[in-house]
């Protein structure tokens, strides 16, 4: 097969709505698969191994790190989280579009390990709206919310490191924008898709 | 205004269908304008100055060349043809998307003068179909047709110099692909459009 797939990284500040956008497109874009993360956190009720996460022991996770088996990883609240390299690389080789929703720090690691990936920054309509979204889901103290807002404002500056931006104001428009970016990227000459249709040329 | 427009160059081998695709999208993409060429050839019945072409005298055209006023130019059947720089640059500065359909040689010149442009290669479904299209419109001798076919085959190799490819088999699909590329390019972080929506950020 001459057509290569690619990794699509959907990132942006905390609470901007990455999951919602991802859920809205999964299953609606041909050849798209979700990059399942690995974690050492125990499964919550209803979570399935290999679907929601790869649930690994601490030892299994650390062996992946040692063997360069993760495209990125981080520790969060005493648990380890990471993106398994083998799945992404196999899917890309099969011509699939692998999508990952990940925080700004994870995206920065992925930019180094997957430089051919497509990096998309999801923007809130305004900082006021981002504050509302953070408060809506947070059960934290006012201090913790203020700290998350300060971090989100800081993270907005990272946009300059991304390939594309999408405004997450109207979900339907954001879905259309994400689809357009993925279609356009699949038509990039450097990804070689034209060789498949042009074999008789 | 923080948003820059950009030049979209639609090119490909002779008779691949650039005009048809261009006509199908013009007027259907917001902020898109057509790059009107300059020529020294006399107007044909119905052709309007400033709409179909800028009809210039030989002296006017050569003055444009001397003043670096053309992004590309060429001589064809004793007449001069070129792309006026001022119109394209003014429209891009106003945030417009300027589209130009041009042959492979013209596109190569544009790549040097407008490196931020979006270069799209339109592909025929097959060489047999391209031959049919060349014969359908050609009133030439078999030798002339053979020569045009040989040139078209040669031009197919230029695809590697382009950003994107579009297969011109089904016109509706080609229109969708062109729209997706233009939408995606308008969402490129490097084009700065996010600064407009993010002024409150």
Short description:
Chain A is an alpha/beta fold. Chain A has helices spanning 18-25, 58-66, 85-93, 104-113, 127-137, 142-156, 171-186, 194-197; strands spanning 6-11, 32-34, 37-39, 53-55, 70-76, 79-84, 97-101, 118-123, 164-167. Helix content of chain A is 41%, strand content 21%.
Per-chain topology:
Two copies of one chain form a homodimer.
Chain A: E1 6-11, H1 18-25, E2 32-34, E3 37-39, E4 53-55, H2 58-66, E5 70-76, E6 79-84, H3 85-93, E7 97-101, H4 104-113, E8 118-123, H5 127-137, H6 142-156, E9 164-167, H7 171-186, H8 194-197
Q: What would you say this structure looks like, in words?
A:
The structure is a homodimer of 201-residue chains. With 201 residues, chain A is an alpha/beta fold. Chain A has one domain (6-193): Rossmann fold, CATH 3.40.50.300. In chain A, 41% of the residues lie in helices and 21% in strands. Chain A is built from eight helices and nine strands. Chain A has helices spanning 18-25, 58-66, 85-93, 104-113, 127-137, 142-156, 171-186, 194-197, and strands at residues 6-11, 32-34, 37-39, 53-55, 70-76, 79-84, 97-101, 118-123, 164-167. The first copy, chain A, has a five-stranded parallel sheet, sandwiched between helices. In chain A, strands 4-3-6-5 form a four-stranded mixed sheet. In chain A, helix 5 packs across helix 6 (142-156). The first copy, chain A, is globular, with a radius of gyration of 18 Å. The mean pLDDT of chain A is 92. The interface between A and B is medium-sized, with 34 and 34 residues.
């Amino acid at each position: 097969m001459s057509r290569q797939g690619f990794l699509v990284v959907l990132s942006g500040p905390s609470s901007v709505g990455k999951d919602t956008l991802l859920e809205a497109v999964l299953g609606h874009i041909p050849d798209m698969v979700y990059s399942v993360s690995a974690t050492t956190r125990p499964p919550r009720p209803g979570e399935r191994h290999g679907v929601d996460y790869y649930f690994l022991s601490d030892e299994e996770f650390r062996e992946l790190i040692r063997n360069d088996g993760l495209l990125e990883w981080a520790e969060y609240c005493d648990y380890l989280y990471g993106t398994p390299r083998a799945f992404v690389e196999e899917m890309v080789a099969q011509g699939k579009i692998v999508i990952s929703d990940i925080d700004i720090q994870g995206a920065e690691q992925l930019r180094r390990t997957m430089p051919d990936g497509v990096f998309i920054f999801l923007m809130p309509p305004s900082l006021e709206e981002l504050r509302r979204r953070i408060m809506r889901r947070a059960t934290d103290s006012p201090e913790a919310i203020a700290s998350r807002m300060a971090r989100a404002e800081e993270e907005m500056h990272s946009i300059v490191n991304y390939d594309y931006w999408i405004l997450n104001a109207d979900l339907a428009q954001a879905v259309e924008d994400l689809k357009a970016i993925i279609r356009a990227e699949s038509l990039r000459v450097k990804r070689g898709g034209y060789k498949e249709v042009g074999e008789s040329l």
